[in-house]
Structure to design on (865 residues):
């Protein structure tokens, strides 16, 4: 397998795009990434998308985006791995280039959630859970996270307020990201006072419903050009776990996230201590905590201490969600994994602006779908 | 209306029927093609006790289509050791805690509109206080 | 009537939902201040996930557990009710599936207003008594319907009981004899597609409830050659407590004989479940040798009367939830609005 490099990035702002649908959002991000790379077209397009079918009534989303972006008759396929779809699309593009199937591939993630009715969005998100043994019993995505958070609090003795740093850091980072949905910082006190969505989960524990698209151009060594600032994909790995939360031997261990991280560390010949930043899947504060533990930054039950000590903030030992993360940049579900890769690449290119992690050389990005039933982990190197 | 789907699930939904492995005696729910412990395929239908304790719980606010909130959901740890996900019923939110003993009851779990199909299945409630048999 | 082979009750189980509504909350919504107090102080209300099927399953599980009968020996199940979850589709097949007694079983829903449950009992006695099946399950269960503001809304409650009938040698109470008495009397009915039943007001009293209950009861007493004083307990259908008190007195039963079975005082009228629930409350305390008098009533109209004799097996067949356990488990709902929501009288827009 040959090396694959990210040489172009593109993204739309995350938010409520009342004037744009799946095709416009997807095409804008894809064109921006190709422009950034200086390529007119690509050999393949992989589009991560989760809710096109059940919320937008649109499957075949990759063809839709390829058409709108003027890339026909390119090979174009939708990649679906629930909330990890965007990350999985990047992995597909990296595989295509590494395998020699093409020299230039585009990976995008796109989601258009705000067209759906609220109960339709909740039902749509629940399609990532086990339909027979979770969703059919009224389990929502928020409720499943609430079950995890309650158990975590029970086992560690932590109060709700101990989860505040994840939201506070994410909102602070988003404040200087022009593409973020929420650009107002919040305080730990505001977090503590926030209304409950599904006790113990409050509105500041949860990422918002929103629209957005992001894309990266991946190419081979041979296709690199002089003006590129290539970011090498040192590892891209996927692992799975039981689709039903209840079937896991330890519900507080995201084993798919842990296995995919271990595979990525092994492939890159690196470990957690070598990472300069971590784009975590902070859809809920509890998932951030469990992801930090799964990726080896904290032992089981100790992620909250890491957060309390300031490790996750800019300048800390492992800055997370450096552009606001899913929590504050926004979580257009099937696109979030692609946003993570765009943001990590910007950091490694030294183009993070006010959000730049100084001297960033290596980044870990992890996308988690279906409450840990599937996880995609990337290690990127400058 | 998913009529066929719920029909397929009736043994599991109505009476909590899972499987027992005749090789290692492990019990599992729901049914699978292999034993979750020893991977043997020597599985027979097995009805679970339906008694356990609350392992974790949450109150659902905004509900998915087809459900009327608010309601309570839980991970329940059965006497057999395994966990399953279900709604709690006949209990107020302030009375639920981790470790609460619960028992299975068969209730409506979905109503597809006032004219539509009714899905029945397991839920859990606090164990009914019972007088001693005389 | 007597079956060819002697038959009895091998196991029984009851069910009453946890929720109650105060009838004063209903009265406050519809009646002027100072109006006459409702006949019962509170009545049972099904939870949002309960209906005749779920309630029948729980009562039947208790009955089967108590009887200890092998599931494959149960050859019939009937659910008597006037609040079937489906207008067309049997409740009994869902109950049978949940109990694990499918597929070789006779199953159907019975309809005869408030007498549907005792109709199921007559059928079970006949099926077992003829030798067609070894054991048969008869259930009477209702989530009783009433129009908002109507007189029935103050009493229409929810609950019922399940009885597993089997050969007399395995019975906790043996059936001595039964009677059925019917006429065409249009005191109460509900047309297809109508949400609530209509009733004839005072016409539901003397020409309906009282005439049929008295006639069936007297016929049964003659049939078994006994007087009221020979029975430890008497159970009747319970539209309101005073109907039971009046008909019992007319027949010569004392207040002490009807006290235990008069569960309507605590939870209202469970329609097809009413008299069967009263019988379960009596069995919860009955002693070996006791004779129990039972007479249902259903609009339309008719009564089924049964005489039972309790056996020595009763003591060993009372594990699990008693009627009193369900009546003691009570949570009063927050006002008439919540009651309307729970009964589906108002629905989410």
């Amino acid at each position: 397998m040959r090396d694959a490099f990210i040489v172009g990035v593109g993204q739309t702002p995350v938010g409520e795009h009342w004037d744009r649908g799946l095709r416009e959002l997807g095409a804008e991000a894809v064109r921006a990434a190709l422009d950034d790379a200086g390529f007119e077209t690509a050999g393949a397009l992989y589009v991560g998308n989760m809710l096109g079918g059940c919320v937008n009534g649109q499957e075949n989303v990759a063809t839709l985006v390829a058409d709108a972006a003027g890339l026909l008759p390119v090979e174009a396929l939708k990649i679906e791995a629930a909330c990890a779809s965007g990350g999985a699309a990047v992995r597909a593009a990296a595989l295509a280039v590494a395998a020699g199937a093409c020299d230039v591939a585009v990976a995008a993630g796109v989601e258009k959630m705000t067209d759906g009715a609220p109960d339709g969005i909740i039902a749509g998100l629940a399609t990532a859970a086990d339909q027979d043994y979770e969703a059919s019993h009224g389990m929502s995505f928020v409720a499943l996270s609430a079950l995890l958070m309650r158990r975590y609090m029970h086992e560690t003795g932590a109060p709700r307020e101990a989860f505040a740093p994840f939201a506070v850091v994410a909102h602070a980072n988003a404040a200087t990201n022009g593409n973020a949905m929420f650009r107002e910082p919040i305080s730990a006190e505001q977090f503590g006072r926030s209304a409950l969505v599904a006790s113990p989960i409050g509105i500041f524990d949860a990422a918002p419903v929103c629209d957005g698209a992001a894309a990266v151009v991946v190419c081979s060594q041979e296709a690199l050009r002089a003006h590129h600032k290539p970011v090498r994909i040192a590892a891209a790995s996927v692992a799975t776990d039981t689709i039903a939360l209840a079937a896991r031997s330890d519900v507080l261990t995201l084993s798919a996230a842990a296995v995919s991280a271990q595979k990525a560390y092994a492939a890159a010949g690196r470990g957690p201590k070598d990472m300069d930043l971590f784009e975590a899947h902070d859809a809920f504060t509890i998932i951030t905590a469990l992801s930090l533990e799964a990726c080896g930054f904290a032992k089981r039950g100790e992620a909250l201490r890491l957060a309390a000590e300031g490790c996750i903030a800019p300048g800390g030992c492992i800055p997370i969600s450096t552009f606001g993360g899913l929590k504050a940049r926004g979580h257009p579900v099937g696109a979030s994994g692609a946003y993570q890769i765009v943001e990590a690449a910007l950091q490694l290119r030294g183009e993070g602006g006010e959000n730049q992690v100084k001297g960033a050389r290596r980044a870990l990005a992890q996308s988690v779908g279906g409450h840990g039933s599937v996880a995609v982990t990337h290690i990127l190197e400058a | 209306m998913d009529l066929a789907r719920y029909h397929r699930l009736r043994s599991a939904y109505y009476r909590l029927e899972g499987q027992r492995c005749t090789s290692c005696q492990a019990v599992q729910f729901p049914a699978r093609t292999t034993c979750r412990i020893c991977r043997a395929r020597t599985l027979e239908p097995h009805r679970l006790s339906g008694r356990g304790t609350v392992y974790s719980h949450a109150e659902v606010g905004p509900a998915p289509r087809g459900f009327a909130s608010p309601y309570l959901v839980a991970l329940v740890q059965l006497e057999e050791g395994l966990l399953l996900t279900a709604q709690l019923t006949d209990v107020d939110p302030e009375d639920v805690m981790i470790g609460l003993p619960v028992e299975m009851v068969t209730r409506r779990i979905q109503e597809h509109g006032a004219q539509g199909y009714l899905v029945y299945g397991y839920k859990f409630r606090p164990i009914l206080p019972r007088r001693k048999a005389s | 009537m007597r079956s060819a082979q002697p038959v009895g009750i091998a196991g029984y189980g009851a069910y009453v939902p946890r929720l109650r509504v105060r009838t004063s909350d209903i009265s406050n919504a519809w009646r002027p201040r100072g109006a006459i107090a409702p006949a019962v102080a509170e009545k049972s209300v099904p939870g949002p996930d309960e209906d005749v099927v779920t309630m029948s399953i729980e009562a039947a599980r208790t009955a089967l557990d108590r009887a200890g009968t092998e599931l494959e020996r149960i050859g019939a199940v009937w659910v008597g009710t006037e609040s079937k979850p489906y207008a067309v589709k049997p409740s009994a097949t869902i109950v049978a599936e949940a109990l694990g007694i499918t597929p070789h079983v006779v199953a159907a829903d019975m309809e005869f207003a408030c007498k549907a449950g005792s109709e199921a009992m007559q059928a079970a006695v006949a099926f077992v008594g003829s030798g067609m099946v070894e054991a048969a399950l008869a259930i009477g269960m209702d989530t009783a319907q009433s129009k908002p503001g109507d007189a029935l809304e103050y009493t229409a409650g929810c609950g019922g009981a399940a009885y597993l009938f089997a050969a007399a040698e395995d019975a906790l109470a043996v059936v001595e004899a039964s009677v059925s008495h019917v006429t065409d009397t249009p005191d109460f009915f509900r047309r297809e597609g109508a949400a609530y039943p209509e009733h004839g007001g005072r016409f539901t009293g003397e020409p309906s409830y009282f005439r049929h209950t008295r006639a069936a009861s007297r016929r049964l007493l003659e049939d078994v050659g006994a007087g009221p004083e020979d029975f430890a307990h008497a159970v009747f259908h319970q539209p309101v407590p005073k109907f039971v008190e009046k008909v019992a007195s007319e027949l010569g039963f004392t207040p002490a004989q009807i006290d235990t079975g008069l569960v309507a005082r605590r939870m209202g009228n469970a329609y097809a479940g009413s008299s069967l629930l009263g019988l379960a409350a009596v069995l919860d305390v009955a002693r070996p040798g006791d004779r129990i008098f039972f007479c249902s009533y259903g609009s339309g109209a008719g009564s089924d009367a049964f005489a039972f004799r309790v056996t020595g097996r009763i003591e060993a067949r009372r594990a699990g939830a008693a009627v009193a356990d369900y009546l003691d488990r009570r949570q009063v709902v927050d006002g008439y609005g919540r009651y309307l929501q729970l009964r589906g009288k108002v629905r989410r827009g």
Summary: The first helix of chain C runs from residue 23 to 30. DSSP finds eleven helices and 14 strands in chain C.
